[in-house]
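Anyone else keep sequences and structure tokens together like this?

Example one:
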Amino acid sequence: MTNRILVILPHPDDEAFGVSGTLAKYINEGAFVTYGCLTLGEMGRNMGVPPFANRVTLPAIRALELEESCRAIGIQDVRMLGFHDKTIEFEDKEFLDGTIRALIEETQPELIFTFYPGHAVHPDHDACGAAVIRTVVRMPSSLRPTVRCVAFSKNREEALGKPDVTVDVRAFLKQKMASIQAHRSQFQIAETIAGGKLSKRELEERFGTESFYTYRFD
């Protein structure tokens, strides 16, 4: 059984599609999850449909959406780490890595979820994953937590092979759908889900599994 999990992702909503069902499953089995979200996604272009946010109000709205998503999943500990959206790749690496290292030292996770650097499409995603890997690789090998990475670049399987971990989250679709729907400013799909426009089979086919690459440090 995995008791302590740390999630390190750059934006509110990054957890929703890729890892929410898996986290709900672990939490149901007794795990304690800490989510370190680097930014508030304050530079996002989406403002809701129809728009209900603006550039000034968006950060606070996205913070509330993140909290709602985490409640839906069952995440017990949410940390908003205060970095700036769309600038993670330009942050001072010592400061960024030090923030991550302090969180690891505090929470002592057995398992970390993040993005696979170079295979997560968005520069913030790649820079976040790279910072996690840089930090964990500096740890003594006997103390390193397992790191599982989300990858969704078009060439991921060509470069990395098939994911080595696939989690059946069909029993936790309620939590996953609630997590997605919490991010109302970002996802029009929330209305499709809430309106019952997808059948149970379509939901399971589209959202019923989550796949990860276990990062190999050697």
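And example two:
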Amino acid sequence: MFLCAVSLGIGVFFWLQGATLVLAFAGLEVAVVGLAFLAYARHAADGEMISLQGANLVVELETAGRLERAEFERQWVRVEPKSGDLSLIELSGQGRSIEVGRFVRPELRQVLAREIRKALRSA
């Protein structure tokens, strides 16, 4: 925010000196920075939450403010990579499926899949 104010201040200074286009470009710069902030804010809260609630595995995916929720009976869940070892993890069961692991580094997705399988077997 401070940098935008500085940019506009410099633009106003040059506008007062007679260089009117500097202020126009400073305004354009501030507008582009504002759009970048909006794009960031839209995805700042994106995430995945995987939890066991009683006999169910509950998966909640939030992307750009849209929440997708899927529940699976624990004993019928299959945990598999979507296409290869470094791909997203597909959780499926009872005719539904959902992909998780978008926010995990690809080389750690196998570890996540093992942890999910282990949690499903316990208790």
